[in-house]
Amino acid sequence: MTKLANLISTIICVTGLVILSAAGAQSQNPPTTGALLTINGTVTDGTNSTPVNVSISDKDIVAVSSQPTVPVASSGNASTCTAADQVQTAGYVLQAAAATGCDPGDTFEGTILDGSATLSSTSGAVAYTFNITTHYQCGQNEGSCSASAITNTNKTITSGDTGFLTVTNNGPTNTYFVGTIQLEGTPGPSPAALSGCTAGQPLIDSLTFTSGSPFLGPQQPAPSGPVSQGEFVVLALASDSSGCGGFSGPIINTYTTSPQTTTAGGSNQFKDPGPSGTIQTYVFPTTTTFEDDNNNACSTTTPPTMAIQFQYWDPASFNKGRLPGVAQTPNWCSSPTDPGLACSTPVPAQTTCAQLSVNGKNYCIVEEAQCTCNGAQLAQCNVDGGASGILVSNAGASPTATNPGLVIGDDGQNNWAVMAQSPDGATCTTNCSTQKLNTDITILDVNQPDFSFSASPSTLNPSVGGSATSTVSVSWVYGLSSQVALSVPNPPAGVITSFSSTSLTPLVSPPSPMTSTLTVTPLTTGSFTLNVNGVSTPIENGVPVTLNHYAFVTVNVAANTSTSGISNVITTLLNNNCIDNAGIANALTSKLSAAQSFISAGGNNDAINTLTALNNQINAQSGKHIHTTCTISGSIFNPVTILTTDVQTLINSLRVGLLGDPITGYALNSSGAGIQGATVSILSGGSSIATATTDITGFYYFATTNLLTTMPPGNSYTIEVTGFAGYSTAVPTSSPFTWSGTLQNFNFTLN
Fold first, then answer.
1. Which CATH superfamily is domain 659-751 in?
2. Taken in order 577, 582, 584, 590, is the CA torsion positive or negative?
3. Which residue, 462, 617, 588, is CA-closest to 524?
4. Integer Cα distance of 465 and 496 in angstroms
5. What is the pLDDT of residues 471-501, one digit of tens each?
6. Band (516; pLDDT cuts 50, 70, 90)
7. What secondary structure does DSSP assign to 310-332, as a single string?
8. What distance in Å separates the CA atoms of residue 718 and residue 723, rounded to the nearest whole number?
9. Are 314 and 252 in contact (CB under 8 A)?
10. Residue 70 per-residue DSSP state
């Protein structure tokens, strides 16, 4: 063991022991976890540094070989266990000799296998790696324990009949750690009378490193010199762990569901068998793969299963042992093919568990997934949803939290990641996505800058050319104020949206929400949902954090249109240069006014003819003065399609068994330009029975075709230009036609 000069050390109640890790045997009723190792401080290379706040429970420091069991009684060992006591486990190596009931008052039984684990990260300015091993000297043959004593770094415990934990700094070359490494456990309810431990009183072995005496990683004193090994320290809690009755951890109760078969494309719902009322649901996409610890696919003949253990944690112990969060390495929550699944890791500092009140007492509820593959229990679930992501939701009980967020992490570790939104409020708590499913899920009160975001009402019912409004409200969570930009990304074609203010900065003191009015103006009929977006980029601890939330507004546009609504649409198109000529716009709206006069007088047939003529004129101006592509407030659409659809919708509403279509046409000069003010007449037997005047485009129409008859022989007529100031002749001079009640079109060229 290396010497550490000026090492500041602390030991509290050094008489019972525990150690973290791996292949110990679990009894029928053991505590769920025991001693806890925490490493809190900073790793540095002399220039840059990275905070280190990691912890691990003894049950998560596991043996390399899987599923070891306790030794049974036999010649040469002190075990009193039988084959019925051989509960398979992958943890608790250092709780060896704290029995399964084979030894009175003990909770665990020793094994011959040591455990190991690694706490590391490469996400900061300086990477770090701490290798952890556990060792119980007695192993299977306790008769030789006294001959193989080990001493901890603090030199407070020298024993061969207990468990020791070793931490080695194997970070990058020429880095070192400054801070505290601590092992803590609480004796079980019935420690031995002569153990010197008190039930429920914590035992702590603590080492503190200063800049003057740091915990060194591998060193290379000279560029060409050899690299030395990183330093290591040894911790222990007691000279005889069984004398302290084992160590109980922060989990108070556990309730485990029955296993359920899991399949790609399927879903599973697990309800807490205990009193919390929590319901957890998983939805697996068809791309999901289920594999064993060696990444081999699970058999279809023995399908994979999953059960959920609902763990009831003491809140103070959870916040101390499982928080603050550390980064995942690698970030298994994200998918290279779906950046939207990326997790925000680690959870921010000062994040705490979201406490749930159960029968008058508060708990932190952690759901640990327990998976089988090919009939064998896995150390951790190995489920990958692929690019689509696995959908996870928690329902039922509602924990108390300012900013609740569903998080996922490795079994027993504190590399919690806030799961991707789908979206769902300030932080995701239902319908959250992750690419991979390991084991632990819980709800944390995420202490990050965030804002609540809503739109009310969430359903609007405007008419074509009209508008409706919804109030968007923004307020801050955790008191950090930053500007929130508002938008409606990718609105449907022909739907115009606007805000009274495109950005809001909520007040912090006194806390007050800020609002902006969203106005929705549809140019055509339909039903759709708008995704109202709020984005803010506050600075947290010097780092920009992007917050992106949505509120949903359903819009149901009335199925019928009106002449006034279509006139409003034309005005909007003109104001936004989708119609680039005011005279053209006026020609269109004048026909709408004429159609409305017919409608008001009960002349729906004449109104239909007028509107049909209007649609003909709109199509004639397509790509000329009426553009075929236009963008307003991010909505890209074809104004010609919008207008003709609206007019046709109005025609359809007026057409109730009516006959009659208009007579239309153009009067143009020899260059093809429209001639305004020419008079066109319909003659019967040489007498004029109806006249029309061309507009700015040279267009004319006869809406009142009810003056004509479809019955022979009186259904033969002639149409000609009878007035054209400045022109001498028209080609053709006239056009005879037989009226059948359907649309007729006649064009004239004036010379």
1. Immunoglobulins (2.60.40.10)
2. positive
3. 462
4. 10
5. 999 887 766 668 899 999 889 999 999 999 9
6. very high
7. EEEE-HHHHHHHT-S----SS-T
8. 15
9. yes
10. P
| DSSP per-residue codes, 611-663 | HHHHHHHHHHTBTTTB-S-EEETTEEE-HHHHHHHHHHHHHHHH-SS-----E
Q: Could you state, in order of their start, the residue ranges of all structural domains in the chain? A: 8-249, 253-448, 451-556, 560-658, 659-751
Measured CA to CA in angstroms, residue 361 lies from 313, 314, 392 at distances of 11, 10, 27
Asked if 451-556 and 659-751 have one fold, the answer is: yes
Q: How far is CA 10 from CA 207, 209, 524, 662, in A?
A: 7, 12, 76, 100
The sign of the dihedral angle between the CA atoms of 567, 573, 577, 580 is negative
Q: Which CATH architecture has domain 451-556?
A: Sandwich (2.60)
| CA quadruple 450, 492, 651, 468: dihedral, nearest 10 | 20
When mean pLDDT is compared over 2-16, 277-291, 398-412, the highest value belongs to: 277-291
Question: Cβ distance 57 to 321 under 8 Å?
Answer: yes
What pTM value is reported for the model?
A: 0.49
Token output for 276:
């919390």
Strand, coil or helix: what is 701?
Answer: strand
In contact, 160 and 149? CB cutoff 8 Å: yes
Q: Which residue has the tokens 């359809």?
A: 652
How far, CA to CA in Å, does 545 sit from each of 122, 503, 540, 548, 727?
Answer: 20, 17, 7, 10, 73
Residue 734 has φ and ψ, to the nearest 5°, of -155, 165
Residue 323 makes CB contacts below 8 A (sequence gap 6+) with 347, 351, 352, 353, 414, 416, 444
Residues contacting 676, CB < 8 A, separation 6+? 694, 695, 696, 697, 698
Banded model confidence at residue 249, pLDDT cuts 50, 70, 90? low
